[in-house]
Design a protein that fits this description.
By secondary structure, the protein is α/β, with parallel strands linked by helices. It folds into two domains: 145 residues, NAD(P)-binding Rossmann-like Domain (Rossmann fold); 302 residues, 2-Layer Sandwich (Dihydrodipicolinate Reductase, domain 2). The protein has 15 helices and 18 strands. It has an eight-stranded mixed β-sheet with strand order 8-12-13-7-14-15-16-17, with helices on both faces. A six-stranded parallel β-sheet has the order 3-2-1-4-5-6, sandwiched between helices. It binds 6-O-phosphono-beta-D-glucopyranose. 6-O-phosphono-beta-D-glucopyranose binds next to loops.
């Protein structure tokens, strides 16, 4: 791979350098980009934190690389080279002196590199500080270079429609919309990006990718872990805000979007917005007909007893926060009218899996005699986002031997087997795109707003009507029974529910 010589030098400032995201994702991603020559030849990483010092920070990051990088422990020579471009500074985000210090570093680097750098400010901090940092950067002129200054923020972008609009207004006081990179890390996953290739680089799927052939779509993002150490945050969020408003709706837009004219950033984002705009508004009456919420209680996991959500650290012992959501949406347009999109996510489910299942309609006429098969399964396409990245297609085949006996078989594409390479981490892709100044994979303000509008009626309803039956599923199961009822009412069932029951 060649060095990115055409890229202008970059200064990447990470606010919240001692936090979890920095050690688990950001530094390992930057280090891998460095190893793969995807960073510009001249770059600096300025890590801004409130405790620790440079030496301690560097040692912690070396440990983190060993623990969290897909490549494992760092190569000593390369690491030395990488950290020669890494500077840790201590500062209080509330204190104006921090922004002046950062400005001084930026000015010195630009003098040394003898050119204007791309300046990236990554806010890996609690959302309550976003506005303060954006103001601070603006106050010292670090937001003025509209083509070179970029601010990257992590979700949650607000808690609801109103607060996300307030946050936007605040950011817009210093930055223009084109400078704001709102990260949804699902969009950086290789398999999610492959959806573009799969749908739009192949002629086979487009003719059947519509209400005429598709019966229903299921999107599942299941996690086996509980809330881990994030109980405090999760109490203010819940699964609807944490996963559905962003990751699941984004996956849905890629499945449902119209073919793109080009891969240009605004074209991609416009087509996604079109899908979101077409989502049939949820009513805040009768939500049980389209939405289910759940919360895990204690259960067993891999033979071990695990605690329930209410017993997790930082969680209210009578919490009404949902850790599971199942939701039925419709996209009211020519392509998808009346095709249900079932979305499901939860913590402490039986296994970690993210997948999109497209169920096709049955053949119009069944010419095979009864008894030719035990069950006449319809065609089904499964797009595995993680962990077993790949795509499989289920169809009917004749069993070898006398007579016409049918059996369901599967044709598959396995990512690792096909490419003999390891997928890179979502954060590597996303950081690279920010450095290159391509916002296609990031959320634009209107996408964000419409996504909030979609879930807001449900947020309001659940807020005002606390669940009376929580906890309603055992850790290690596929969520509350009413989640199955949601689909059963439509004569359908969740893909993989059976498999788990057997488990
Ligand atoms: C984050 C959520 O956005 O996504 C977490 O805040 C969740 O609660 C995580 O665990 C899941 O991401 P992934 O990439 O592990 O599926």
């Amino acid at each position: 791979m060649t060095q990115q010589t055409s890229l202008r030098p970059a200064i990447i400032a990470i606010f919240g350098a001692t936090g979890d995201l920095t050690k688990r994702k950001l530094i390992p991603a930057l280090y891998n980009l460095f190893l793969d020559n995807h960073l510009p030849p001249q770059f600096r990483v300025v890590a801004v934190g409130r405790q620790s010092d440079h030496e301690v920070f560097v040692a912690q990051m070396l440990d983190s690389i060993a623990k969290y990088s897909r490549r494992g422990a760092a190569d000593p020579v390369k690491w030395k080279e990488f950290i020669s471009r890494l500077q840790y500074i201590v500062g209080d985000f509330q204190d104006q002196a921090l922004y002046k210090k950062l400005k001084k570093i930026v000015d010195e680097d630009e003098r040394e590199y003898k050119c204007e750098c791309s300046r990236i400010y990554y806010l890996s901090v609690p959302p309550s500080i976003f506005s303060r940092i954006s103001d601070g950067l603006g106050s010292v002129g670090l937001s003025q270079a509209r083509d070179r200054d970029r601010i990257v923020i992590e979700k949650p972008f607000g808690r609801d429609l109103e607060s996300s609009e307030e946050l936007n207004q605040h950011l817009l006081a210093s930055f223009e919309e084109r400078q704001i990179y709102r990260i949804d890390h699902y969009l950086g996953k290789e398999t999610v990006q492959n959806m573009f290739a799969f749908r739009f680089a192949n002629a086979l799927w487009e003719p059947i990718w519509n209400r005429r052939y598709v019966d229903s779509v299921q999107i599942t993002v299941a996690e086996d872990v509980g809330v881990e150490s994030r109980g405090g945050y999760y109490e203010t969020s819940g699964a609807l805000r944490d996963m559905v408003q962003n990751h699941l709706l984004q996956l849905m837009t890629i499945v449902a979007m119209e073919p793109l004219v080009s891969f240009e950033a605004n074209e991609v984002r416009n087509k996604k917005v079109d899908v979101l705009k077409a989502v049939r508004p949820l009513q805040n009456q009768e939500p049980h007909t389209y939405a289910v919420r759940g919360q895990y209680g204690p259960g067993t996991y891999g033979g071990e007893l695990v605690t329930g959500y209410r017993q997790e650290q930082g969680v209210d012992p009578v919490s009404s926060t949902e850790t599971f959501v199942a939701l039925k949406l419709y996209v009211d347009n020519w392509r998808w009218q009346d095709v249900p999109f079932y979305l499901r996510t939860g913590k402490r489910l039986p296994r970690k899996v993210s997948e999109i299942v497209i169920d096709f309609r049955p053949v119009p006429h069944q010419m095979f005699p009864r008894g030719s098969t035990d069950s006449f399964d319809c065609n089904r396409m499964i797009i595995n986002i993680q962990p077993d990245e790949g795509i499989s297609l289920r169809f009917q085949a004749k069993e070898p031997g006398a007579g016409m006996r049918l059996r369901t078989v599967t044709m598959g594409f396995d990512y690792t087997e096909a490419f003999h390479s390891q997928s890179r981490e979502a954060y590597e892709t996303l950081l690279q795109e920010v450095i290159e100044g391509d916002p296609a994979l990031f959320m634009r303000d209107d996408q964000e707003r419409i996504a909030w509008q979609i879930v807001q009626p449900l947020l309001d309803y659940w807020q005002t009507t606390p669940a009376s039956n929580f906890p309603n599923y055992l850790a290690g199961t596929w969520g509350p029974e009413i989640s199955d009822v949601l689909l059963a009412r439509d004569g359908r069932s969740w893909h993989n529910t059976q498999a788990t029951i057997k488990k």
